[in-house]
Amino acid sequence: MPHQFDYLIIGSGVAGLSYATKLAKHYEEAQRPVRIGVITKVQADETNTKYAQGGIAGVWSGSDSFEKHIDDTMVAGDFLSDPTVVEIVVREAPTRIQELIDYGTRFDKEADGDYDLAKEGGHSDYRILHFKDITGAEIERALLDRVTYYSSIEILTHFYAVELITRHHLGETVHRYDDTNRCFGAYVLNSQTGKVERFLARTTMLASGGIGQVYQSTTNPVIATGDGIAMAYRAKAVCKDMEFIQFHPTALYESGKKPNFLISEAVRGFGGILRNVNGETFMEHYDPRLSLAPRDIVARAIDSEMKKTGTLHVYLDVTHCDYDKFLEHFPTITAYCKDNLGLDLREDYIPVVPAQHYLCGGIRVNEFGQTNIQHLYAAGECACTGLHGANRLASNSLLEAIVFGHRAYLRSVEDEADVTDMTHLIPVWDDKATHHPEELV
User: What is the CA angle 67-272-215, rounded to 5?
Assistant: First the structure.
């Protein structure tokens, strides 16, 4: 028998869980029955979200403004961002972040109780809320805790989505720009049994993260294989801006290590200075914002310096920073550098190198996370909302995920009546073509 849900969510990161919690709250408060299924490849917290270090951006102080955050986002994206989407995300940011706080998310505070706002590359003001150097893991913890409040949410671990179920599986011909195509759920591999099972749903949300494992060097975890985007494309969804791949300037250089350990953008915001292998600063030759230029500019500058010197990395210098305060802000980074490379950051430079970090494109969605396939939504890194343009502004990704998780929820509950039950027509998975008799041993 197939698994049947009202809402199927593929991915358990910040986008998927924020969407799930909003749906559950809506239905349970109205005392209406609903089944929400969240599938994830391994354990529920093993997501791209978990590895986000720096923070989440939002206008939070009196000196900042929506206009400044909007302008910073447009400049970082080389003015290829969608201005309407940028304004939506920036203006909704404080409300969505406050919801995370209400869920129990902790952000670092100053001694006077105000939030300790950080400044990262491309930002003109201090607006990054963070928790140590594990902000993503803290948000993931709070969301997973919030999920337990709702009996309507079921998290199923060790399940891999294989293929979206659409009208194609009813024997119909579908086209990429045909607005009559519809999603009915997904075929999903149970990695513990080796069987592909039907997960049927009235509405499906793709929140499957990025594509980092396509690259030799990446900061993404091993689960980030881009399969959500591939499934959507095969199902005739439209993808957009796939050429815009962001490389983080400062991944820790460890020969042969994959994924690369991330040295947060916030380290440069704290005062870290980039130097070449000769100990010379170089960002003054590339951008007046120096080490706090947007990521694409800094990554290209580092690549240029590496080619000039014929070396495999440059250095990030934090030896001049207040060590006790640095340790307070970046305990994970400090411990990792010491335990794995034997570095004492009071004396030693950190070897860093650019690594694939984020896909700015993805599955094309509208302002409510809807794809061109009926009842198929996408949010988070697998989606292209138009926010990032050619290059994402630091700490805008977690923000985008919670904003579009919320907006997708709003549209999903509006759309719920427009569903006809066709699940009895969905065939079981046919795996005959996956084996060749001559390959059997």
Answer: 80
Mean pLDDT of 201-213: 96
Taking residue 112's Cβ as centre, other Cβ atoms within 10 Å add up to 5
| Judgement on whether residues 100 and 27 belong to the same structural domain of the protein | yes
Task: Tally the C-alpha atoms within 13 A of residue 159's C-alpha that lie toward its C-beta.
Answer: 24
Q: Which contiguous run of DSSP H or E holds residue 325?
A: helix 323-329
Same domain, 99 and 189: yes
Residues of the domain holding 347: 248-356
Does 432 score more than 90 pLDDT? no
As given in the structure block, the two tokens for residue 12 are: 């358990």
Both 344 and 197 in a single domain? Answer: no
pTM: 0.92
State how far the Cα of 423 lies from the Cα of 300, in Å rounded to an integer: 50
Give the mean pLDDT of the chain: 93
Q: What angle do CA 41, 47, 50 make, to 5 degrees?
A: 155
* Nearest Cα to Cα of residue 206 among 420, 383, 439: 383
- Residues assigned a catalytic role: 295
Same domain assignment for residues 295 and 170? no
CATH number of the domain within which 237 lies: 3.50.50.60
Q: In the prediction, which pLDDT does 216 show?
A: 87
Instruction: Look at residue 441 and tell me if it is in a domain.
Output: no
Q: What is the DSSP letter of 426?
A: P
Mean pLDDT (whole number) for 59-81? 96
Q: Are the CB atoms for 333 and 323 separated by under 8 Å? A: no
